[in-house]
Structure prediction request, 257 residues.
Amino acid sequence: MRGGSMWEWFIGLVSQILATIQSVVGDWGLAIIILTFIIRLLLTPLSIHSTKSSARMQALQPRMMEIQERYRDDPQRLNEEMMKFQRENKFNPFGGCLPLLLQMPVFFALFSVLQYHLPADAHFYNILDSLARSVGGAVGEFGYFGAIVYVVMDLLFGLLTFLPLYINSRNSAPDQRRSSLLMGIIMSVVMIMFGWNVPVGVLLYYDTSAAWGAIQQVFITNRVMEQVKRTEEEKFANQITVDVVRKERKPRPHKKH
Prediction:
């Protein structure tokens, strides 16, 4: 099976799953929300794995900086010590990225289904009369007041993009916090502009997924990161204590024959 055919088959599979859920619940909007929940739930173990990898890298970063500072005038020794440190601590710089890369095909397929394969009459109860209509199209047809729900969906997309960055920045240094907040504002504006011209069904998916991500971050991600960081810091502190004791232990005097 060729790459294009495989991708088309995958999109068709996602489309069929969405249609099956809709046939059970009787509403396309609710079907999108349920499918998004199912996907996020299935991918939660990957997200937790990614969080643990990121937390370990953050916890080990100060130790790596110490090594870089200690051997900055000896590149060969620096390289040897860094490789040794990474090997002893099972350091994997791609551990936090790989799960995210594995999620991308699922999200792109769902995006494609929502943008190109929804029926023209697909709706979300009496809240959104057409999931295939864009926010810009609704405003052009009904005006801002008549399309207020569509506009709110787009603004909510921007807000939910900003929220995780805001949560992460609370414990950061002032300069890093300002940079994170500025980046969050810029990303939010870009997402609002992007959301203006896509079918509102896509926004419903993104809003649901982002809301899940924000809740997961508050109740799971932050706690996992704190636990992993604490474990790594305690392990490193114990290693330092053992090394100090070994260095302070005097050699036993040899008996004279």
User: Anything to note?
Assistant: The two ends are 82 Å apart (CA to CA). The chain has a mean pLDDT of 81. The chain has one domain: 3-133+199-248. Residues 239 and 245 are 10 Å apart (CA to CA).
